[in-house]
Write a structure and sequence with these properties.
Helix content is 30%, strand content 15%. The chain is globular, with a radius of gyration of 24 Å. With 491 residues, the chain is an alpha/beta fold. The protein has a single domain, classed as Alkaline Phosphatase, subunit A. Bound molecules: calcium ion (2 copies). One calcium ion binds next to loops.
């Protein structure tokens, strides 16, 4: 058995050997601090219905909540575009839609002339000595991600096979719902797409470390439509007990013509407010979405467990984000493609290993998904990438209440912008129409203050953050099945 001599009997260290030992210790610490792994968890269409975001009083997301206790939860984080393709293109290239030309689903970032010389986030990590791995949906299009030359890639799964389980009529009760379906389907939890995406990632986390640090990107596709889950998740939200989102009769009366126009896009799909209310399906839609949030959370929990039980637990940065929000009837709107809070607000949590890092902290400062790239570059001490248009959130990770006068921008098609500051949401449409909401008193954005002269100065100040120039669309692909010609510039 080893015994420790009393201090007085120990051989005294010479000053030079002490310095050498200290230097060695510092070297080891610096090396491991310089090369943290990254677990990059991308979620599709998850809004603020997450326990730690207080977006819905009944939602059960114990694992995302657990992650928040390990780091900093950004409660005022917003996407740069309220749909998958441009939001992910922005995040992964570190550029804004109004500066890269990617505004819509039917585009491809490798065909955008302004992105020709841009190094995407995973590629940047690869160039700087990381082993990059991906499982599931990271980019909107599979082929876009292929350009990163991943060291290992897991499979990405479609939803068609689940549609077959739901049957030709679907399970929601909407007529011909197609992908706009929601409810429980007869499937085992382990068979769900995201369970398999998670299995693949868990196996990689369990593997012994290589000489290189890893950047492991895991893209969970739930809660993207269809909102299917096994019954075990759906049954946690009894239909007679679910709370509907708060709405106000006549809420849309104070919208300018362009605000109203935006609500009409989804009127052409099965999941419209008209259809949902007409068929009495709002409770079921809420329960189904809550169930998808809980299922996604279950996958996140498996990733966190795997990491915590692995040798990488103390040397892995975790970032969790969703590409945009989702309306479940707020402002009588459904899905995304709006410039309101429910479309733009997203979960964003950073957990950074290290003794001095903050735990269980929240920051109410306005931040964007575009800030993830520069933040990871700084946290991992990679060389600065000068082409990035977001800003590193490291100062907020160190002090979540640091003064931060950087309102965040969301764009939907050229010229339609929202500016979100800590207190306000200011929307400026391409035709000049405006909306203004005061989140201090009106978190549901019921009262549009844009026409009230009392707020002219607020509008003027916020409008200084609008882009001065907007680039046109990068080349467009043919329309897909569920998209249609829609004029986003005129009421
Ligand atoms: Ca999405
Ligand atoms: Ca209103």
């Amino acid at each position: 058995m080893k015994t420790t001599k009393p201090l007085s009997q120990q051989t005294p260290f010479s000053i030079p050997s002490l310095i050498l030992a200290l230097a060695l210790a510092l070297c080891v610490t610096a090396h491991s601090a310089e090369k943290p792994n990254v677990l990059f968890i991308a979620i599709d269409d998850l809004n603020d219905w997450v326990g730690v975001l207080d977006g819905h009083p009944q939602v059960q997301t114990p694992n995302i909540d657990r992650l928040a206790t390990r780091g900093v939860n950004f409660t005022n984080a917003h996407c740069q575009a309220p749909i998958c393709m441009p939001s992910r293109a922005s995040l992964l290239t570190g550029t804004y839609p109004h500066r890269n030309g990617i505004y819509m689903i039917e585009q491809n970032l490798h065909e955008a002339p302004l992105l020709k010389n841009v190094t995407t986030l995973p590629s940047y990590f690869k160039q700087n000595g990381y082993r990059i791995l991906r499982s599931g949906k990271i980019y909107h299009r599979v082929k876009e991600g292929d350009a990163d030359d991943w060291d290992e890639s897991g499979k990405r799964y479609g939803w068609g096979w689940m549609g077959k389980l739901a049957g030709p009529q679907g399970v929601s009760g909407l007529p011909e719902p197609s992908i706009f379906d929601f409810g429980p389907i007869p499937v085992e939890t382990a068979e769900m797409n995201d369970s398999k995406v998670t299995d693949w990632a868990v196996e990689r986390i369990d593997k012994p470390a290589t000489d290189k640090p890893f950047f492991l990107a895991v893209g969970l596709v739930t809660p993207h439509l269809p909102h299917f889950t096994p019954e075990e998740f759906y049954n946690r939200y009894p239909l007679d007990q679910v709370k509907l989102p708060e709405t106000q009769p006549g809420d849309l009366d104070d919208l300018p013509p362009m605000g109203l126009k935006f609500t009409r896009y989804f009127d052409t799909t099965p999941m419209s407010h008209h259809n949902i209310t007409r068929y009495g399906l709002w409770n079921k839609a809420v329960a189904s979405y809550l169930a998808t949030a809980t299922f996604t959370d279950h996958c996140v929990g498996r990733l966190l467990d795997a990491l915590e039980n692995s040798p990488h637990a103390d040397n892995t940065i975790i970032v969790l984000w969703s590409d945009h929000g989702f309306h479940i009837g707020e402002k009588m709107h459904w899905e995304k493609r709006s410039l309101w809070e429910e479309s733009t607000r997203v979960p964003l949590i950073f957990s950074v290993p290290g003794k001095n890092q903050l735990r269980n902290a929240r920051s109410t400062r306005p931040v964007g998904l575009i800030d993830i790239y520069p933040t990871l570059v700084e946290l991992c001490k990679l060389p600065k990438n000068k082409n990035l248009q977001g800003r590193s959130l490291v100062p907020l990770l160190n002090n979540p209440s640091l003064p931060w006068d950087h309102p965040v921008l969301t764009t939907h098609h050229p010229g339609n912008h929202a500016i979100r500051s800590e207190r306000w949401r200011y929307i400026h449409y391409a035709n000049g129409d405006e909306e203004l909401y005061d989140h201090r008193y009106d978190p549901n954005e019921f009262r549009n203050l844009a026409e009230d002269p009392e707020y002219a100065a607020v509008k003027k100040r916020l409008s200084t953050y609008l882009p001065k120039e907007t680039v046109p669309y990068a080349p467009r692909l043919p329309h897909q099945k569920f998209t249609q010609e829609f004029d986003w510039f005129k009421p």
